[in-house]
Specification:
alpha/beta, 22% strand, 15 helices, binds NADP nicotinamide-adenine-dinucleotide phosphate, globular, single chain, Aldehyde Dehydrogenase, Chain A, domain 2
């Protein structure tokens, strides 16, 4: 029997006001594991009322130290329930439990601990004049909306929730309807930590209904959105007339640049991880590998062999490298891109099809890790975000050529550069049109650094002080000291 998940509004569990529900399907088994409220504008109005009330209550005068204490309690509770959170994340997403246990849930815990520390050590500026002194105070934005995708559900929701709470805001969060469970567990944990009712409100539902109602609600003064570029454009257009603060973390088509002088073993394993981690469903995944001609053949051979050696299947098995993608519809999309690549002259050198699995996984949304060569930067397969276990490999001649190819796409989120030459590392990194570059590594994260993209990959930065700034309004106070 499947579970019934609820919204959390004003500290209370609630069904959708219209009584509607949605099925939550486990992509690995294609079975319904829970139902969630299909909320709409009325539920968002109710959440706004609760969030507005909470802004006038004890939360308004809470100190940074008190809020840091809540964040630490939340972190400790998630840590104590890590196994339960990891199992739930795997069931909703299809990702290996081992990945959820080693990456998703530990990172959610780290997000709360990091922002507890950040708010304790936060500083603001002071600007002296001969006859006056200016100082800056940070105030909460007010009610903020957090809209998150399905690929890293708790990881990304907590990346927004922790700084929003740290700065004293009240929250209306809407996770992807495909991955509602860990957000529901989080609401429970926040409630149990003693955070006042109405400070964190969770509203489940579809993007075009509950999400749209958040973006268009005049009382919600800021929206932090992570998701696809097309949705991001729609969110920006809907939020603009209300002059909301907006942070947009959007799609990517990131390049992995591999130079002749790299450590080949490390570059192959780094590029493999960048291509296929989380079934290739991380915005930062290196889905375009560019390899210098001197090592191209050796790289393709090693990379392809290693891709073929990845184990696809049961997300609960410790030996599994690749779980299910998020849904059967998404698996079909990845499959269609293989057909597109073939039409464009591409050669599928690994994968390219659904694996044959038995038992409970026979009807799951699995796809083999897929490697495609013989395509160039004019192809759709190298330009469009597939967001699945599919990677292309292209050849380049020199650094100018590599930078040119890397920068041809509309996106500008991240890149990784693999080289043994310090000069190449610095010069090529600086010429890449991306918000982030890793050298001889990938997804090596320090939570203090700016995170975000350029071009169609987004607007704004999150991380460290950037998150604290986004979730606050700076106010300048100028005190006149007199004429003498
Ligand atoms: P999506 O379809 O854009 O959805 C993201 C969120 O927006 C979901 O909660 C969705 O709700 C909601 N939404 C949809 N339409 C909306 C609307 N009109 N108004 C308000 N909210 C709306 O993205 P996704 O398929 O979940 O996630 C994959 C994408 O996210 C990829 O493009 C990936 O690159 C990107 N991503 C970017 C980052 C980053 O940091 N740059 C990180 C992770 C993922 P429902 O799904 O419930 O309808």
């Amino acid at each position: 029997m499947s579970a019934t998940l609820t919204n959390w509004i004003g500290g209370q569990k609630q069904a959708a006001s219209a009584g509607k529900t949605l099925d939550n399907i486990c992509p690995a088994t294609n079975t319904c594991i829970s139902t969630i409220p299909r909320s709409g504008a009325v539920d968002i109005d109710n959440a706004v009322a609760a969030a507005r009330k909470a802004l006038k209550g004890p939360w308004r005068t809470s100190t940074a130290a008190e809020r840091a204490g809540y964040l630490e309690t939340i972190a400790n509770t998630i840590e104590a329930r890590l196994e339960e959170f990891a199992q739930a994340e795997s069931r909703d997403t299809g990702k290996p439990v081992a990945l959820a246990k080693s990456v998703d849930i530990p990172r959610a815990i780290a997000n709360f601990r990091f922002f507890a520390g950040a708010i304790r050590h936060d500083e603001t500026g002071c600007h002296s004049m001969p006859d006056a002194i200016n100082y800056t105070v940070r105030k909460p934005v007010g009610i903020v909306g957090l809209i998150t995708p399905w690929n890293l559900p708790l990881y990304l929701l907590t990346w927004k929730t922790a700084p929003a709470l740290a700065m004293g805001n009240t929250i209306i969060a809407k996770p992807s309807e495909l991955t509602p469970t860990t957000a529901t567990l989080l609401a429970e944990v926040i409630h149990e930590a003693g955070v006042p009712a109405g400070v964190f409100n969770l509203v489940h539902g579809l993007g075009q209904e509950a999400g749209q109602a958040i973006v268009g609600h005049p009382a919600i003064r800021g929206v932090s959105f992570t998701g696809g570029t097309t949705t991001g454009a729609h969110v920006a257009a809907s939020a603009a007339p209300h002059f909301k603060k907006l942070s947009l973390e959007l799609g990517g088509k990131n390049a992995t640049l591999v130079f002749d002088d790299c450590d080949l073993d490390k570059a192959v394993s780094g590029a493999l991880r960048a291509a296929f981690a989380n079934q290739g469903q991380i915005c930062l995944c290196g889905s375009r590998i560019l390899v210098q001609e001197g090592i191209y053949d050796a790289f393709v051979e090693r990379f392809t062999n290693q891709a073929k050696g990845l184990t696809v299947g049961d997300p609960t098995a410790a030996s599994t490298n690749i779980g299910a993608v998020i849904s059967q519809a998404h698996r079909d999309k990845v499959e269609q891109y293989v057909a597109v690549a073939r039409e464009e002259g591409g050669t599928v050198v690994a994968g390219g099809k659904r694996p044959t699995l038995n038992g409970p996984f026979a009807d799951g949304a699995f796809f083999e890790p897929t490697v495609i060569t013989d395509v160039d930067e004019t192809c759709r397969i190298t330009q469009e975000e597939v967001f699945g276990p599919l990677v292309t490999i292209q050849r380049f001649s020199n650094a100018d050529d590599a930078v040119r190819i890397a920068n041809t796409v509309r996106y500008g989120l991240s890149a990784s550069v693999w080289t043994g030459n310090l000069d190449t590392a610095h010069k090529v990194s600086a010429r890449l049109d991306t918000g982030m570059v890793w050298v001889n590594t990938w997804l090596h994260r320090d939570l203090r650094v700016p995170f975000g993209g350029v071009k169609d990959s987004g607007v704004g930065r999150e991380g460290g002080t950037w998150s604290l700034e986004f979730f606050s309004e700076a106010q300048n106070i100028c005190v006149y000291l007199g004429d003498n």
